[in-house]
User: Which sequence fits this backbone?
């Protein structure tokens, strides 16, 4: 198991404006990017 830390900016509408990795330690770059891509689709 690993940890991926992500920073996101959320608009007042609840949409994610921007997301970026701040620490990558899962050991799997494709997984790290998939996490960022998935979170960008979430609504907060």
Assistant:
């Amino acid at each position: 198991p690993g940890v991926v830390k992500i920073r996101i900016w959320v608009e007042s509408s609840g949409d994610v404006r921007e997301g970026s990795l701040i620490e990558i330690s899962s050991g799997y770059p494709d997984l790290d990017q998939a996490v960022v891509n998935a979170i960008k689709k979430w609504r907060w």
Summary: Residues 13 and 44 are 8 Å apart (CA to CA). Helices lie at 29-40.
